[in-house]
Amino acid sequence: MLRYFTAGESHGPCLTAIVDGVPAGFPIDIAKINHDLWRRQQGYGRGGRMLIEKDEVQIRSGIRWGETLGSPVALGIDNRDWKNWTKKMSAAPEDRDESIAVTKPRPGHADLTGILKYHHSDIRSILERASARDTVSRTAVGSFCKQLLAPFGIRVMGYIRSIGDVAAKSPELGYEEIFARCEESPVRVADKEAEERMIALIEDCKKRGDTLGGIFEVVVLGLPPGLGTHSQWDRKGSEVHDEIFFDPHKMVSEGTPRIVPTGFYRGSNNSGGTEGGMSNGAPLVVRAAMKPISTLMSPLQSVDLRSKRPADASVERSDVCSAPAAAVVGEAVVAFELAVAFLEKFGGDSLHEITRNYEGYLGQIKSL
Fold this sequence. Notes:
- The chain has helices at residues 30-41, 49-52, 111-118, 124-127, 135-149, 175-183, 192-207, 323-346, 351-366, and strands spanning 3-7, 14-20, 24-27, 57-61, 63-64, 67-69, 73-78, 155-163, 166-167, 214-221, 244-246, 264-266, 274-275, 278-279, 284-290, 301-303, 310-312.
- The protein is an alpha+beta fold.
- Residues 251-258 have low confidence and may be disordered.
């Protein structure tokens, strides 16, 4: 079973992820993981932390000469800002300093509930882990998982649908072209007019010390039908449906939403590539909403934990809008879950074994 764990604080020395259940023989390009980490740092509305960090992954176990070994893969990303926090985030008891405690919880964040749950008196002990900085680890894991899917022609792409009340129009283009255009956009949209309005909205929020959320979409191309299962309650089924047709002469190049020429095809993709909790061969479409960031430069009302008197909430360095970055993180999350489902279906101990299982399955469904 593919699984992973992450560790690390926002201003600690490093972030770490361990991926377990990785088969042997998969080629891994570290530069591709670093490119996704770079993509996560981009986007109009990001904060000052992005100017400090240059996130790059270090492979600490599980890969030799560019290929997975079949043992757990450990990924590490150093925090450059750690040099400014060595005393504040020190593990040594002699460095304790109560005078720097954060005591004014931010509405919408984990601050207050976290200190109540874990019996802390300094909010920093919560906010350092309950931080979007952990999405660096998740992005690295997801990028790694993209490379587990890549040998089978599966591609995962994320972009923005809306920021605040500004929605991007959907141009009459294929997913590949939409994604290529979004990669060139500071807000990850293919609609230039919407891009300008989104940037203006972000600038206005920045001046007012406010934040913005947005809606992003992740599309997956190349999935075979049959990942997932209909047999248990914990797999979601389709809420809308697509009529089924059969024509053995129809090819993928004609635009029919399927991955292998079984002869079966659907006239639409309203269900977003799933039916009965399983992939159906059409592009998988996942849409998610990100709420506005909790940390505001014009802080909301709070209470000081020590005096119990009204106070402005604490202010931490933050973004105005990180929805474009969330689309990249969304890619990573989707890629991991698909890698889990793919290995459940075609699993083996090596790329060679998995490829044999996958090709056998394709031959089986083509002959139906």
